[in-house]
Design a protein that fits this description.
The chain has 169 residues and is of the alpha+beta class. The chain contains five helices and seven strands. The protein has helices at 14-21, 24-27, 33-42, 101-115, 130-138; strands spanning 4-8, 49-56, 59-67, 85-91, 120-123, 142-149, 153-161.
Length: 169
């Protein structure tokens, strides 16, 4: 059975992330690689964003970030419950796509986030990216709406709420 873990992104990981962003299966869904890398480099100084490498059996295979949509003035997903986290991720290795790893990483992150008290997770894959939408659905996310959201373009907004607390009888 595979293990799915996360390691905080370090400056020395940036060349690997850049390599992944240049892969055709990733580049299609991200913007200009230089602009994306400049944005990712600012994460180290942003207390409202956490970036990680996704580790499959201890080996880095993708990029993952969690952010507070309520922390940025004018963010299109502001207004979600306090403590909500937005998620973005990409599996960097094409050979790993379509094998259930994406949903496994999402589930793993969700479990730890909900255990820490995060009330909701949100994401916004492109509506033309059925593999990403399917991975989030397999991990418990529900489709909410589709619309054009500047500056991101068209998005399929999805949410996943923390399980209700179990009340002892």
């Amino acid at each position: 059975m595979s293990s799915y873990d996360f390691r905080p992104l370090a400056a020395e990981d940036l060349p690997l992330v850049r390599h992944w962003l240049l892969q055709p299966h990733v580049a299609r869904w991200w913007g200009d690689v230089d602009e994306e890398m400049a944005a990712i480099a600012t994460i180290f100084d942003d207390p409202h964003v956490d970036a990680f490498l996704m580790l499959l059996d201890g080996r880095p295979v993708g990029y993952f970030q969690a952010y507070d949509p309520n922390a940025e003035a004018g963010h299109p997903f502001a207004g979600e419950p306090a403590g909500t986290l937005g998620l973005d991720l990409s599996i960097g290795e094409a050979a790993l796509i379509g094998k259930g790893h994406g949903s496994a990483f999402i589930r793993r992150f969700a479990e730890t986030a909900f255990a820490r008290g995060v009330p909701r997770l949100v994401t916004d894959p492109n509506p033309d990216n059925p593999a990403s939408i399917r991975a989030f659905e397999k991990a418990g996310f529900e489709r909410r709406w589709v619309r054009d959201v500047p500056p991101f373009g068209p998005v399929q907004f999805m949410t996943c709420d923390a399980p209700a607390a179990k009340v002892a009888p």
